[in-house]
């Protein structure tokens, strides 16, 4: 790529080669216009319903004709949650990367946030947001969006932070030489460099969001019906009534939505992000997207770009001027002192919050006896073992498969929709079927729990490995071929070092996902019976089921402590190794 390429292009003239592209037929432009109008109208109608009162009981219509409406409502919630997650990830990762002092506080906090199970905070979030807007659907909608956000934000933040700390030294030095201000550095260097990993983790976040969407749309608390109309409530109601036809129609609609979004959003974004590879040459196959080609050749979009370009250029110039002026007013020494002060304030706030939380938690769990604590310790050990086994299996198959997909654009175009679809189907939908099979095998629920954890974690590693392999510069691949590197030598000198930062990020987020998946894999209710095994997830799920708040809190705290300790002792060291030794220099 050029030395610096903005992720917010505002060219005065079309880029080289754009005028040579085939023009999109006018009927396609008309279709694009109608789609934009329909999407806008749907958003207005859906948000208008948010002001309606909460019905005493939601009546879910299982008619097939309601499926498009339900799919639209669910997709809109996912979209709002994703935008919130994206903004959070960019801001959070940028702040953490700007100061070592802030990083020491913010990354452990991120570890805590990703390790807290949904069962521990879902009732509080739903009731709190519903109480802010009593009697209005908007409160429940905000609660659903926040819950989906909690499944999307953490791995995106980890991914962008990993990109920021592994920017090649020569690019960082060039940014200093050219005196790029905050905005120019962010838009010309940091965001473009992290685009490939950020898009890959966005796909994973979107896939993981479907599970939380299902949970947030079918929430009930005692006699309170707090469900929302959508695919989640449709599938839950169909399963409750035993309506196989409606269940299959709902799953078919979900898969259709996943495939449609893959073709019109994720595949074009992956193809577009190819321009941000750090490489000297652009030979070889590239990932293509028919939708992106149509958008590039659209007369309507070209006219929109020409109309908006002056305003975007002025906005870009204004942000550059403001950040440059601020940087000039503040000397480097003063900025460093300000960062240290912010770090100390964040550390102080974190310490105060930690102490307050520990005091409150100690008071809350003081009633637990030694038998409860022995159960928690044994359960934590059992779940840790299953998590390690599931992660090892995930790495064993996702690394070779992910590298094969990421380094071959033709394979990537064929495999991406399949991987996206499989990863997006909520794992809980297939748990009962898998349990009936796995419980017959040696190991019983212990083996079943590992398999079910694997379903919820392997995709984090796979998507990151694909992103890392696809980001390998073509000139390095050509050099490997020139020096006739093959087999293990090629893996040791090129592939593994190139994908290592992405692999570490994938394993960190997969570990958090595995601990969360233990909630539903170690304590399973189906067919009117409950099956459980020794594990921290089973303790938390059973405590939530029985309303044992003290044991639920204690289990959540133990899970958070184990995840944080693992991250600090293992993953952070690998993170620093990726930062110091495995940059693209």
Index terms:
two-stranded antiparallel ribbon, MetI-like fold, mainly alpha, 585 residues, single chain
Written overview of the protein:
It is a single chain. By secondary structure, the protein is an all-alpha fold. The protein has a single domain (29-280, 290-296, 365-581), classed as MetI-like (MetI-like fold, Orthogonal Bundle). The chain is 77% helix and 2% strand. It contains 20 helices and four strands. The strands form two sheets. The protein has a two-stranded antiparallel ribbon. A two-stranded antiparallel ribbon has the order 3-4. β3 and β4 form a beta hairpin.
The overall average pLDDT, rounded, is 79
Outline the low-pLDDT stretches: 11-20
Percentage of residues in helical conformation: over 70%
Give the helices and strands as they follow along the chain. HHHHHHHEEHHHHHHHHHHHEEHH
Count of discrete alpha- or pi-helical segments spanning 4 or more residues: 20
* Class by alpha and beta content: mainly alpha
Shape: globular
- What number of structural domains do the residues give? 1
The CATH architecture assignment turns out to be Orthogonal Bundle
Q: Provide the CATH topology.
A: MetI-like fold
Describe the strand arrangement of the main beta sheet, using strand numbers. Answer: 1-2
Q: Termini separation (Å)?
A: 14 Å
Number of strands: 4
Main sheet overview: 2 strands, antiparallel
Q: CATH superfamily name?
A: MetI-like
Strand content: under 5%
**How would you classify the quaternary structure?**
single chain
Radius of gyration: 25 Å
Overall CATH class: Mainly Alpha
